[in-house]
Design brief:
There is one protein chain. This protein is mainly α. The chain is built from six helices and five strands; from the N terminus they run E-E-E-H-H-H-H-E-E-H-H. The strands form two sheets. The protein has a three-stranded antiparallel beta sheet with strand order 1-4-5. It has a two-stranded antiparallel ribbon with strand order 2-3. It is globular and about 45 Å long. The termini are far apart.
């Protein structure tokens, strides 16, 4: 549920013709795809690997990212939240990739909305309660959440002796054509 209120700052941040918030979510989507493609080569045993300090297994974490992306987007766009995917057994890469792509597209759409002065209703269990949060800050949580869990999967891959894909801003800048030779 979204609430509208007046704000002094309604324009989306722009930098030389680039919508910064939308670019952040395009980076997020690209890195989600890169990580999924890297994980497709894993054996079932590797997919079931975890490490201390991470969310869970690689497979469960990928599903968690998919479910969360769609959940964040549903709240931001005020649409029904899809039924979450089960983490165990792993539902398969095609299913997870489709759900992540759907969530990525919806998050980019939400980031492109001009009325950032809205608020979204957030209910949580840690700590328990219900709050109103500015959409701009909820978008921050959405992109931070994916980044954190991609990093956790990269840590597990590294511990397995597998090189994790590059998922930084530089990779995005070059692959998206934003880097211009001098």
């Amino acid at each position: 549920m979204l609430v509208h209120r007046a704000s002094e700052f309604t324009a989306t941040a722009r930098l030389r013709g680039v919508d910064v918030l939308v670019e952040i979510f395009r980076h997020n989507a690209m890195m989600n795809r890169r990580l999924l493609e890297a994980c497709r080569r894993l054996s079932p045993e590797q997919l079931a690997t975890t490490a201390v300090g991470t969310y869970g297994t690689i497979g469960a974490t990928l599903v968690h990212i998919a479910n969360s992306q769609e959940g964040y987007a549903a709240r931001l766009l005020d649409v029904p939240r899809p039924e979450p995917l089960a983490q165990d057994p792993f539902p398969g890469f095609d299913v997870v990739a489709e759900r992540i792509a759907h969530g990525d597209a919806q998050l980019e759409r939400a980031a492109a909305k001009p009325d950032m002065d809205r608020k979204v209703k957030v209910t949580g269990d840690d700590p328990p309660g219900t709050w109103w949060l500015p959409v701009s800050l909820f978008l921050l949580q959405a992109v931070n959440h994916s980044t954190e869990h991609r990093s956790q999967i990269a840590t597990i891959l590294t511990q397995l002796g597998i090189e994790a894909p590059n998922m930084d801003g530089w990779t995005y800048f070059f692959e998206s054509g934003h880097m211009e030779p001098v």
